[in-house]
Design goal:
Elements (H helix, E strand, L loop, with lengths): L2 E3 L5 E3 H24 L5 H25 L18 H8 L1 H19 L5 H25 L11
Antiparallel strand pairs: 1-2
Helix pairs in contact: 1-2, 2-5, 4-5
């Protein structure tokens, strides 16, 4: 079994600490395999293509919010401390937004060069939409609140 070493020196199961990420990646891989074999003009094919974009967004949110910060966003983990270099502090404080903007631009450029009506063009278009939605939610949760939501600012 795969194990990792904790700071305390104790060995723990890699699967135990990353099970959500691993299972979500496996589900995404399943949707990709199903879509690769499906007719995109069928109900099942269209569903599989949409599922790829949705689960791709889930994988990114699960993993990116684990490692990247976004100052003021309740969707991000808390940012502890401050760096002395203002530029590095800015990059660290807004890493989630920067990551979503840069990777979103990459998806957009890929979509721009594809036929939007082609089988994979539709999927990439849905992924671009998913990226815009994730970025929007990260930015909106910095300033807006929703009463009764634990994600909203207290």
């Amino acid at each position: 079994m795969l194990t990792i070493k904790e700071r305390s020196g104790r060995r723990v199961s890699l699967i135990r600490f990353h099970s959500l990420s691993l299972v979500t990646i496996c589900i995404l891989a399943g949707w990709i395999l199903l879509y690769a074999r499906a007719n995109p003009n069928s109900h099942a094919g269209a569903f599989f293509g949409n599922a790829i974009a949705d689960w791709c967004g889930s994988v990114v949110i699960i993993i990116a919010t684990k490692y990247l910060f976004e100052k003021g966003s309740e969707e991000s983990r808390p940012l502890l401390g401050r760096l002395k270099d203002p530029w590095r502090n800015f990059l660290r404080s807004h890493g989630l937004t920067i990551f979503l903007v840069l990777t979103g631009c990459g998806w957009f450029l890929l979509y721009w060069r594809m036929d939007p009506t082609a089988k994979w063009g539709q999927v990439v278009g849905n992924i671009v939409s998913e990226w815009v939605q994730m970025l929007g939610l990260v930015l909106l949760t910095k300033r807006l609140i929703e009463r009764g939501s634990k994600e909203s600012r207290k």
